[in-house]
Amino acid sequence: MNIEGYFAPEFTPVAEAFAQILQQPEQRGAALCVQIAGDTVIDIWGGIQDRVGQQPWQRDTLVNVFSCGKPLLAVVTLQLVQEGKLQLEAPAADYWPEFAVLGKETITVRQLLSHQAGLPAIEQQLPAEALYDWYAMTEALEQQQPWWPPGTAHGYAPMTYGWLLGELIQRVGGRSAGKAIAQRISEPLGLDFYVGVHDSDLARISDTSRIKGAQGDAQAQRLLQAIMQPQSMASRAFANPPSMLTSSNKQQWRTLEQPAATGHCDARALAGFYMALLQGRLLDAELLAQMQQEHAYGADKTLLTTTRFGLGCMLEQADNASASYALGVQAFGHPGAGGSLGCAAPELELSMAFVTNSLDLYVLIDPRAQWLNKQIKQCL
Prior knowledge:
Elements: E1 3-7, H1 12-23, E2 29-36, E3 39-47, E4 63-66, H2 70-82, H3 109-113, H4 134-142, H5 160-173, H6 177-189, E5 193-195, E6 209-210, H7 218-227, H8 233-239, H9 251-254, E7 263-265, H10 267-278, H11 285-292, E8 296-299, E9 306-309, E10 314-315, E11 332-335, E12 341-345, E13 350-356, E14 358-359, H12 367-379
Parallel strand pairs: 6-14
Antiparallel strand pairs: 1-3, 2-3, 2-13, 4-7, 5-7, 8-9, 10-11, 11-12, 12-13
């Protein structure tokens, strides 16, 4: 398998590990970028980007990184806090009056950011086409009662996170979340990151597909069993509307502005985002510290495993093999469904992104990305 791109000689073991991943059966294409103190030390890619195996992965290939985009959504929200347009302790209903019903009156912006609001799913069964109707989805959330008393527990919001925070951004910032991410993060930093891909960029997108026979681990099997129970909260979180599970290679999904899940980028853009965060180019020091501060830790009511959240990011769990970034105790970031990962290690002044079109079934951090991080750390 030919690997394209650049890596500093001292990171040769990382490039070799990346090549080994792509040589495994069912692996199709991927990219890896590592930046240290603003310098790019690894920027490599390889494999194929289409499902029929004819189109090589290019330097500018984009891929759906799913939940890896959630930290960008959180940063835009925190920028609005920084500008005084939002308050973390204020009820979300202060900015979204229709939200103030059915026990949601006191849910704060901070609780929305840290998955403590009790709104990881919509109970009312929605039609497939509702996924593409922003008004239908936000109205359904207005009519949703919290699944638990807000602030008393946490449960990951895989999709509703995008509509909840995106609606706040739209109401106080005057533009959609996808456009806000573009104007506040991607364009100023020159990052190839899109929530709502432009028609002119659609040809660059890699198709994603599940690895045949992927089993994940015990956590994944437990969550899959819950999702298969139609009335469960997990099923509603991941499969309501049902089109959530079947749309990722459709043009309608790729152009949809759903900032919790439809982010498309290359590894360079995701690593560049985290480096800009570490360098203080996106948030002031106080809000960056709050982003990395533990807000929720313990049993996750949605993912049915232990999670640890800051504001819009997952924090290091050194004692949990499936949830460790393998880069140090201060590491933070976010995995995406199937295996992509973007993260930062402040103590190393390091950012890393691994993006892939070969989707495995792990719930938290994919072993491929974790193994690469272990190799990176050994090379420092």
